[in-house]
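Good morning,

Attaching, inline, the backbone tokens for the sequence recovery test we're adding to the shared suite. The designed sequence is right after.
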């Protein structure tokens, strides 16, 4: 039946919503989403906290800059009339404004004179150097020289010396002689007739030391501690999910091995269990329930097979006795007694039908048992099909039919050999029963990628397209037995035929139990084509 454009338009959103629902319910999708969240959250938080830290830095630096300006303004009257002889006395003046937490250093670049003096180490030729003249608390000459070289390398003194103006923020970390470090926060110029003075303010308070001044934000202790805690939390969550994921994969692997019929026993001959494969205590109850379910299915399948065999034997014995008892009665009754002969004939037909019903019931029970716990092993399907195709020579000659076969060698599947024989038998006999005299039954077994494909074709009347799916339903049968035979043979065939409509139903159930598919289609030239695909054994 052709689909209208409106039907297609309605189905597309449904398929899209179904995919989205599947993605949302999928554990893999949720795990991927969680990983993306774990990546995105720290990036966003880091950006926000870094901006807040930058604002905090600006406040600290402005405070330090303002403090340096106030101290510079307080020192400026004492620096206005100073000369070279008075330079040593500036340490006392500087000590009035500095302490252990706010440390001050005073540099000077004397005004250029006609007498040239040698350039200090680390300065460029043609550039007047700055000299440390005082520090509070006092520092050794080596420590001061190291700090001055740092300011020169950063270009701070060069920029300041060009104009001797502008209060600059530094945010530079330097090691402290007594251990630890301090932050050079600002450098304030003071211009006098003697030269250009530079007041360097540094801080060793916790607010400055623990901040990100003078170093990348990610290297601060608080950020590194938060990163360690966050990574530990993310690793713990992902480890929990990964453990559950691996556990479910182990469950799935064992379930596939059980369904595929692989050997699931240990060295002691015990069946592999879900509980033994479980590594998550919270899933112990689920694993035990799975083990009980598998054990129940195995016991049920065994009980069904035993009951099917016992019931068939129990029914077949009285049927055989009745059949044997009818024969003496037929010989004892006179042939001209038409009524008695007809009664015996009806008894024999009823016995035939009852015998077929017993066989039918046994096949149904065995099919149900095979679905509960299919016994599977590696079976060379090529050899099996070739052997079975050769076994129909007598039947084909009786029906005046021909067989054409093409079987690729070496095709192996994992299934039950007995069940495969039943599948091939039902397909071939179904094709034979519908084929006309002098017709051809075709059997083809080929490889198609990772699948093996069994195709059985006949030249019969085919099937009503509306019933192509229904022929696989249980108890559905729409046939005319004996089609294509002579009238006397057709009558005899019809009299003894018992069709219950379960052959193709059993074919489909068994094929799907082995992970395969079966479909029916009418051939363009007439007849029916049955195609069975089964996964090749790995």
């Amino acid at each position: 039946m052709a689909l209208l454009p409106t039907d297609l338009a309605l189905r597309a959103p449904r398929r899209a919503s179904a995919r989205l629902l599947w993605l949302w319910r999928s554990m893999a999708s949720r795990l991927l989403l969680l990983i993306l969240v774990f990546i995105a959250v720290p990036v966003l938080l880091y950006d926000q906290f870094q901006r807040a830290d930058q604002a905090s830095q600006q406040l600290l630096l402005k405070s330090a800059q303002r403090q340096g300006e106030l101290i510079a303004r307080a020192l400026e009257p004492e620096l206005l009339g100073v000369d070279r002889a008075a330079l040593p006395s500036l340490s006392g003046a500087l000590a009035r404004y500095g302490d252990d937490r706010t440390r001050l250093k005073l540099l000077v670049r004397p005004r250029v004179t006609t007498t040239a003096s040698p350039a200090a180490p680390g300065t460029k030729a043609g550039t007047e150097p700055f000299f440390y003249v005082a520090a509070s608390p006092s520092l050794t000459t080596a420590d001061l020289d190291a700090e001055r070289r740092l300011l020169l390398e950063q270009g701070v003194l060069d920029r300041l010396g060009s104009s001797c103006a502008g209060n600059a923020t530094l945010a530079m970390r330097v090691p402290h002689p007594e251990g630890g470090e301090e932050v050079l926060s600002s450098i304030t110029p003071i211009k006098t007739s003697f030269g250009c003075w530079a007041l360097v303010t540094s801080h060793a308070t916790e607010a400055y030391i623990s901040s990100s001044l003078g170093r990348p934000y990610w290297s601060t202790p608080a950020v590194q501690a938060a990163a360690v805690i966050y990574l530990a939390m993310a690793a713990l969550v992902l480890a929990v999910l990964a453990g559950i994921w691996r556990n479910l994969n182990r469950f799935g692997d064992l379930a596939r091995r059980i369904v595929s019929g692989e050997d699931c026993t240990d060295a002691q001959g015990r069946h592999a269990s879900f509980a033994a494969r479980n590594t998550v205590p919270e899933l112990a109850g689920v694993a035990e329930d799975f083990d009980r379910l598998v054990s129940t299915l195995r016991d049920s399948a065994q009980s069904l097979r035993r009951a099917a065999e016992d019931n068939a034997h129990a029914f077949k014995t009285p049927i055989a006795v009745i059949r044997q008892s009818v024969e003496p009665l037929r010989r004892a009754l006179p042939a001209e007694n038409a009524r008695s002969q007809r009664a015996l004939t009806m008894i024999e037909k009823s016995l035939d039908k009852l015998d077929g019903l017993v066989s039918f019931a046994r096949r149904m029970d065995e099919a149900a048992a095979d679905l509960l716990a299919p016994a599977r092993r590696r079976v060379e399907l090529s050899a099996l099909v070739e052997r079975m195709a050769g076994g129909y020579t007598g039947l084909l000659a009786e029906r005046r039919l021909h067989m054409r076969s093409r079987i690729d060698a070496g095709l192996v599947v994992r299934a039950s050999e007995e069940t495969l024989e039943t599948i091939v038998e039902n397909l071939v006999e179904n094709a034979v029963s519908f084929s006309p005299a002098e017709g051809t039954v075709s059997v083809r077994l080929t490889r198609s990628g990772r699948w093996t494909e069994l195709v059985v074709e006949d030249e019969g009347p085919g099937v009503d397209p509306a019933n192509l799916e229904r022929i696989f339903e249980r108890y559905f049968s729409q046939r005319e037995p004996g089609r294509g035979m002579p009238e006397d043979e057709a009558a005899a065939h019809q009299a003894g035929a018992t069709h219950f409509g379960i052959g193709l139903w059993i074919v489909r159930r068994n094929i799907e139990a082995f992970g395969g598919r079966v479909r029916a289609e009418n051939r363009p030239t007439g007849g029916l084509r049955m195609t069975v695909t089964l996964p090749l054994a790995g």
